[in-house]
Amino acid sequence: MSYDDVEIEDMEWNEELQAYTYPCPCGDLFQITKDDLKLGEEIARCPSCSLYITVIYNIEDFSDHNRNNKPLQPSNSQSLTVA
Predict the structure, then answer these.
(1) What is the residue range of 49's domain?
(2) pTM beyond cutoff 0.85
(3) Rounded to whole angstroms, how far apart are CA atoms 8 and 15?
(4) What GO cellular component is one of the record's annotations (predicted)?
(5) SS3 of 10, please?
(6) How many domains does the chain have?
(7) From CA 18, how far away is CA 35, in angstroms rounded?
């Protein structure tokens, strides 16, 4: 059973670990990577003990499909003269 349910907004991004982290009672950090989240993983594990948490998040926020739906930007700027 999961130690706790934690929303992704309550976790911190750790640049060094390249993972979202949350304090573990043992003194270490629960960790989950963006790649894990993209794959639908919802379990963040502590590397120092056997505890884990369930991460609550919207998978669409981390999907590659979401990134590919950005509005298209014009490749060349062209001026338009209106009479």
Answers:
(1) 4-60
(2) no
(3) 16
(4) cytosol
(5) helix
(6) 1
(7) 10
